[in-house]
Amino acid sequence: MPRKPFFLLCLLLLIAVGKSGAQSVQPNMWTARSSTGLTLGGTWTAVTDPKTGSVTGTWTLVDAQRRTLANGGWSASKSADGWTGNWRAANFGGSEHEFSGSWRARVDLKTNAGFAALFEKAVEAVVGGSWRMGSYSGAWSIQAFK
User: Fold this and answer.
1) CA atoms within a 13 Å half-sphere pointing along the CA-CB vector of 18
2) pLDDT one digit per residue (tens) for the chain, 146 residues
3) How far does CA 46 lie from the centroid of its chain?
4) Integer Cα distance of 122 and 21 in angstroms
5) The pairing of beta strand 127-133 with beta strand 98-106
6) What phi, psi does 49 have (nearest 5°)?
7) Cα–chain-centroid distance for residue 115?
8) Reported pTM
9) 14 vs 57: CA distance, rounded Å
10) Could you say which of 56, 88, 116, 128 would form a disulfide bridge with 10 (CB–CB 3.0 to 4.6 Å)?
11) d(CA 32, CA 19)
12) Is the dihedral of CA 37, 82, 145, 55 positive or negative?
């Protein structure tokens, strides 16, 4: 079963740690499409803390001309029933306002499962969760393919 190669691929895509102890991060790409057909995309990075297993990263939202429309940071830590985290967005739409919120992924993972296991699980079935920003909230989901 190709679980181990997929797991290693996820680790290589998600986590880059420099030899000197400084963390070096290569951005990954993301895309999303709304129910109305709006397509969004950008970059994201993830770095796992080897001592705690928590994950931090950055993300951008870019337009079709690859201009950055918004950027921010995010963090996550393993909870009993999945992953929980926070996110922050700055410079959205050219404004100097900052937005922040939280997110949760509810997924059946082993207690010691790393962040890459979330994506491995998304190959087997859709993984979802919830997000919140002030009085706004909603659901999200991901599905990964081999």
Assistant:
1) 7
2) 343 333 333 333 333 222 223 444 556 888 777 667 777 788 888 899 999 999 999 988 888 788 888 889 999 999 887 899 999 988 666 667 788 899 998 888 888 888 888 888 888 988 888 888 888 888 888 877 77
3) 7
4) 31
5) antiparallel
6) -80, 115
7) 9
8) 0.68
9) 10
10) 116
11) 34
12) positive
CA distance 127 to 31: 16
Residue whose pair of structure tokens reads 């994506």 in the numeric block: 119
Taken in order 22, 73, 45, 43, the sign of the CA dihedral is: negative
- Distance (Å, rounded) from C-alpha 131 to C-alpha 107? 15
Q: What is d(CA 67, CA 64) in angstroms, rounded to the nearest whole number? A: 7
How many angstroms separate the CA atoms of 124 and 119, rounded?
9
Q: Helices 3-14 and 116-124: crossing angle, nearest 10°? A: 130
* DSSP assigned state of 70: E
